[in-house]
Amino acid sequence: MVLEMKVPSPGESITEVEIAEWLVQDGDYVEKDQAIAEVDSDKATLELPAEASGIIILKAEEGDAVAVGQVVCHIDTSAAAPSGASAKKDAPASVKKEEPKAEVKAAAPPVENYATGTPSPAAKKMLDEKGIDASQVQGSGRDGRITKADVLEANVSMGNTPESANRGHSRTKLSMLRRKVAERLVSAKNETAMLTTFNEVDMSAIFELRKAHKETFKEKHGVSLGFMSFFTLACIRALKLFPAVNSMIDGKEMITYDFCDISIAVSGPKGLMVPVIRNAEELTFKGVESEVKRLAIRARDGQITVDEMTGGTFTISNGGVFGSMLSTPIINPPQSAILGMHNIVERPVVKNGEIAIAPVMYLALSYDHRIIDGKESVGFLVAIKEALENPVEHLMSNDVKKALEL
Description:
- The protein has three domains: 83 residues, CATH 2.40.50.100; 50 residues, Dihydrolipoamide Transferase; 209 residues, Chloramphenicol acetyltransferase-like domain (Chloramphenicol Acetyltransferase, 2-Layer Sandwich), CATH 3.30.559.10.
- By secondary structure, the chain is of the alpha+beta class.
- Strands 9, 12, 13, 14, 15, 16, 17 and 18 form an eight-stranded mixed sheet that branches.
């Protein structure tokens, strides 16, 4: 019996996926539930498990865009499992690929016509700028037409670049996920009135708290006391004080949420992913750190689901882990604001009229000026600064052990 495997639906709004990588080869014997392919949707990369055991016959190539419900492979379930250590079996004769021919015929010389040796408009402009005669350039375009690349290579061969210089390049197709991210970022820049406001935070108080309690916290809860819990809880406090930041535009209306679903930008094997901490306003330091760890591991292992990245009312992005000093994060639509964290550097600051050295982090809040005014955006960022510089009062109600559940 031959089973037709179709692409399952990764989510309600997804109608097409892309075959990112086949994890098996044509003719392999696969076990039921074995991961046979990785597929990219516009939201996540997912594994495609085999629906039955048998010999697999691939019906799509890597890089192909396939519709949800389309057949991507056949599994011959009547085939017996191979004996021995090898799990690979020759494909049936009807599906065996032909071996490449030993002899390869030489390519026929290009047919000369009116286009041969004629530069394209862009190439002609470059020839004029560089003072190169078209007769000195060998055209590689259609029918021998001279392209921009031909002019660049001719320029190099005429002594403008050392002969030993590497002039190679590669071309890689963007994944569906990366293309969707690009579309969303361009959309956010073009369709929102995005502005960014900045501030700085003295992280001394948080450093002292972590130094005093991080070991006990980790021993009791099994997770580290990191910066994300402080920043998440500081953002929740600020969102309650400035609810317009926890809003988004829907046509001619503004939707303001009573809950805080915090999106956190994490780096995964396929690029940036933004899983969501649901109802973060109900979580403690332990709860936030546990959820951040869980989502980060799932993103790293490529197990994050579409549902885990859907929604979110506010985003936190930590570019500081990569060494960023300052940046202007782009809003994650349809949200109205995003907070950018950066690296912590010891800098001179004034305390009580004297210069002191303190660990300082720059913060950036990008926001949609259509629904968030300058006063609200600045006030929101100042509220975060207040909470981070005095966490015992603003985030722990003056009871550190109770807040950390020690």
